[in-house]
Write a structure and sequence with these properties.
Blueprint: E1 3-7, H1 12-23, E2 30-31, H2 42-54, E3 60-65, H3 69-75, E4 83-85, H4 89-97, E5 103-107, H5 113-125, H6 132-140
Parallel strand pairs: 1-2, 1-3, 3-5, 4-5
Residues 8, 10, 42, 65-67, 69-70 line the site of D-ribose.
């Protein structure tokens, strides 16, 4: 499975840390920017990553801005994208089990690296349950 990661300047440091964390485990995250801490606009960042998922180039994404809010709002405007802010370990699991989330969202200024790495591991290890949840997801994209 290919996973892309992208952030605005508010998430740049955390993005760098997450890339390093998974590199040590042998997993390369596809870095879609931003590539410095210079100010940029989160809708542009979300668009690039969401289009990569919708085209099938990558299967999952990680998006980071200062709070996670702006970039998740932007991502969820794309039909077929289900972006979830993983604000707890339980939510990291439920976002996969119930929502089949394909984008994990974090706040670079509101979450620690340890929390984010742990929640991302849970997210990647959890399968979608299907069933009644599939029916609900189908309604999102109608
Ligand atoms: C950028 O300063 C900040 O507004 C952005 O990263 C994000 O937190 C917006 O929701």
């Amino acid at each position: 499975m290919k996973i892309a990661i992208a952030s605005d300047h508010g998430g740049f440091e955390l993005k760098t840390q997450l890339i390093e964390y998974y590199k040590k485990q042998g997993l390369t995250l596809q870095d879609m920017g931003t590539y410095s801490s210079d100010s940029c606009d989160y809708p542009d960042i979300a668009e690039k990553l969401c289009r990569a998922i919708l085209s099938g180039d990558v299967q999952m994404g990680i998006l980071i801005c200062g709070t996670g809010i702006g970039i998740s709002i932007a991502a969820n405007r794309y039909k077929g994208i289900r972006a979830a802010i993983l604000y707890s370990d339980d939510v990291a699991r439920l976002a996969r089990e119930h929502n089949n989330a394909n984008v994990a969202v974090f706040g670079g200024r509101t979450m620690t690296k340890e929390e984010v790495c742990r929640r991302m591991d849970i997210f990647l290890q959890t399968e979608f349950e299907g069933g009644r949840h599939q029916r609900r997801i189908d309604k999102l994209d109608k």
